[in-house]
Amino acid sequence: MSYPSLNLPPAQLKLSKEQEKFFVWCIIRRKKLLLTPEEWVRQHVIHYLIHYKKTPVERINSEHLLKINGQNRRCDVVVTDSFGNAKLVVECKAPEISLDEKVFLQTSNYIQQSKASFFWMTNGINHVIAECSKPSIFLEDIPDL
Question: pTM (2 decimals)?
Answer without folding.
Answer: 0.92
